[in-house]
Design goal:
The protein has 14 helices and 2 strands, in the order αβαβαααααααααααα. It is mainly α and about 325 residues long. It has a two-stranded antiparallel ribbon.
Length: about 325
């Protein structure tokens, strides 16, 4: 009888195992050199300034410098919490940011979906440019655009109201309208950037999902509900976590430039950033400003950890870390 052949693969011997080519360190030297400028910028711009955090706990003296100034503990933080406006500026900062986060997410996703549904490539580029343009404008320019509409004497809105037989509105002295004005201006200016972020995720969704849904008879709303929104969920959660990291910070230009720093509007336009700026203009104190910035950074860091922890508990895959 013939000897049966073993068809199963035989294990390789130590001599037959291919040896991995060890890449020499010198091979990576050009890449390390290319990364040096970025690394130097990161260290100089992001890490070296952290030594200045100690100013928040010192009675800063310009003549003695950072190292020579005396420690004062938490005395600089007492200014923020002992002020009569502490509750007001904290309330305004948090509530405005909550509205910005919610509306920014809803409108950003909606506009991105609408633009993505445009068939013509030329029309799509046109809409993207027009919607993104306000984001590239300086807040000073935006403030004067708002003033051109809301000026009590020459504003376009008051001119329309008077032409209809009504009386003009003193926009810069009436606090009733400004929460809505600031929210509108913020969304008008930032919606383009949000659209770009969500649109980048929409482009990566395979068209095969939508083709299969169309074959099954799904309507456009059903496609958005069952395909688009679930696939956008990771991007939405990531941006939510990042935005919560700025919940104790405010756009200084929006709350200072747009209302034209009108004292009558402080009750609805004053935030932590504008309050600290005005305080420093009256009483120049770098230590106080540093304490406010340190306080904001710590609270924002805690908010990021809390939101990420909640997301991680609900769905571990969608958490950032």
């Amino acid at each position: 009888m013939k000897e049966e052949r073993n068809l199963w693969p035989q294990p390789m011997t130590l001599e037959e195992i291919p040896k991995k080519n060890k890449t020499k360190f010198s091979h990576w030297i050009p890449f390390y050199i290319m990364g040096l400028p970025g690394l130097a910028y990161l260290i100089i711009n992001n890490y070296l300034p952290m030594f200045g955090l100690q100013i928040a706990f010192k009675k800063y003296n310009y003549a003695q410098g950072i190292w020579g100034s005396k420690w004062c503990g938490f005395a600089n933080f007492e200014y923020l919490f002992s002020s009569e406006q502490a509750f007001r500026i904290t309330r305004n900062t948090i509530l405005y940011n909550l509205v910005f986060i919610v509306l920014g997410m809803i409108l950003g996703v909606a506009v991105a979906i609408f633009v993505n549904e445009v068939i013509s490539a030329a029309a799509k580029r046109f809409y993207q440019t027009v919607i993104l343009l306000p984001y590239l404008m300086s807040m000073v320019i935006v403030a004067y655009l708002v003033y051109a509409y809301l000026s009590p004497n020459t504003g376009l809105v008051n001119a329309i109201i008077r032409s209809l037989g009504g009386g003009g509105i003193e926009w810069y002295s009436d606090t009733v309208y400004w929460p809505f004005i600031l929210v509108f201006v913020n969304q008008w200016k930032t919606i383009g950037f949000s659209m770009v972020l969500y649109l980048a995720s929409l482009v990566g969704i395979s068209k095969e999902y939508y083709e299969a849904a169309q074959i099954d008879g799904a309507s456009k709303w059903q496609q958005i509900k069952s395909i688009t929104l679930p696939l956008l969920k990771p991007t939405m959660i990531t941006l939510l976590i990042l935005n919560c990291g700025r919940i104790f910070r405010s756009d200084f230009g929006l709350f200072f430039q747009v209302p034209m720093n009108q004292g009558a509007l402080y009750s609805v336009t004053d935030t932590l950033d504008t309050f600290v700026y005005r305080s420093l203009m009256e009483q120049p104190n770098m230590a106080m400003s540093s304490a406010a910035g340190f306080y904001q950074s710590v609270v924002c860091f805690i908010c990021v950890l809390l939101v990420n922890g909640i997301v991680r508990k609900v769905n571990k895959e969608n958490a950032m870390f």
